[in-house]
Amino acid sequence: MEKKTIRTGIVGSGFAATFHYEAVRRVFGCNVEVIGTHTIDAEQGKAYAQERDIKFFETLDEMLDEVDVIHVCVPPVAHEPISIAGLERDKFVICEKPLTGYFGDGTDEFCGDTFPKQDALDAALESVDRLIAAEKASKGRLLYAENWVYTPAVQKEREILEKTGGQILWIHGEEAHSGSHSKEYAHWKFCGGGVMLGKGCHPLTAALYLKRVEGRVRDGKPIRPKSVTARAHAITRLESFRDEGHIRCDYNDIDDFSLMHVEFEDGTVATLAASDIVVGGIHNWLEICANNHRAICNINPNTTMQTYNPVEENFKDIYVVEKIGTKQGWACTAPDEDWVTGYHQEMEAFYGTIINGGQPESDLLLAADSISTIYSAYVSAERGGAVVDVKNY
Ligand SMILES: NC(=O)c1ccc[n+]([C@@H]2O[C@H](COP(=O)([O-])OP(=O)(O)OC[C@H]3O[C@@H](n4cnc5c(N)ncnc54)[C@H](O)[C@@H]3O)[C@@H](O)[C@H]2O)c1
What is the pLDDT of residues 140-180, one digit of tens each? Predict the structure, then answer.
């Protein structure tokens, strides 16, 4: 049977747009024809388009005229308007994490450190509601690009839960490294928060997903988050922090260390750390402690391959592993990092939904629960770690 062809456009032309493009090229369930890109940075967008021999669109609307799907690979502040524009035109929208958030009050004085976090929670949930309404009114749908859901390790855990009916008692996990590459990331007004949102969303959403799977398998309904307790800190902005050049430390008004402790409806728990203060490469892992098994998902680093390099210079043209500070000595070198990170499986699954219908594992409601939990966690952190109820979707 001849494969269907789906026409795609990528919004943004930076880091995420690059790995999205590579991932769609490895989709084999249909032909994905990347028509073009639209970006506000026209110079960057044109270079991205030229390199890939695709079109550069001056406006989003022009691109929407020519595609069935858009990939939203722009900073979080632009996720909602771009996603809604796509849904209003009945397109499928593949939206990067975090789904949405609260990006300040528009004033120059806005400071992420001092404003009342309840405002952020209320505004973020209003944004979620607008996205849910837009999806309901659309023939398209929003596919939430939380790659942790699609990592081979987390999908293997799904299989274990489905085949054994296991009950998860405690999930703990972490996403950490030594600091984001993005300039905007230093400011709450562009990213909607700090590390608790930007990185914490990854292990949190994987944990929410697995409890969802557990409930679906045993009782036909997901187990949802009920409350959260959290702490958030700005370690690199402490007067006592001593910068030795290994950790990014130019943040304006965001947290760079966070802990969320989530209680689910069934009384079980998840404890998720996220930080920008960890050297030695990205540290992404999730451990599942169930009543009938235990699983440790080492997303990055892992020991698929290890290399020892006695001379830094020898590896100058070799990609080793994300955010590693040096190529000298032993390293958990990644032979195919995008695969272990779930980018390919995610796109295969999303394009499967686009051509065949069906329920994606990572959808708008999972993203909504994630946003609701994180902004409730900011309220908790502001109250010194008090328990805050989580609205679930
Ligand atoms: N899943 C992951 O592993 C992962 C990794 C990195 C980034 N991300 C997410 O991807 C998104 C983009 O991050 P990035 O690292 O690619 O940032 P980036 O700064 O590298 O690129 C952002 C791009 O968006 C464009 N842009 C900004 N505002 C726009 C607008 N209103 N309309 C059109 N284009 C606009 C910029 O010109 C730029 O091309 C963020 O939401 C981030 O959280 C996800």
Answer: 999 999 999 999 999 999 999 999 999 999 999 999 999 98
**Distance from the CA of 187 to the center of ligand 1, in angstroms?**
14
- For 270, the token pair is 């998840």
Residue 295 sits at φ, ψ, to 5 deg, of: -135, 135
73 lines ligand 1 (CB under 6 A): yes
Q: Mean of the pLDDT values across residues 223-238?
A: 98
Distance 95 CA to ligand 1 centre (A): 10
Distance CA 150, CA 286 (A): 13
Residue 1 has pLDDT above 80, yes or no: no
Ligand 1, atom 34, residue with closest C-alpha: 39
pLDDT value of residue 373: 98
Q: Does 200 contact ligand 1 (Cβ within 6 A)? A: no
d(CA 253, CA 15): 23
pLDDT at position 311 is: 98
**Type of residue found at 147:** N
Q: What distance in Å separates the CA atoms of residue 207 and residue 222, rounded to the nearest whole number? A: 12
Atom of ligand 1 nearest to the CA of 41: 37
Mean pLDDT of 299-326: 96
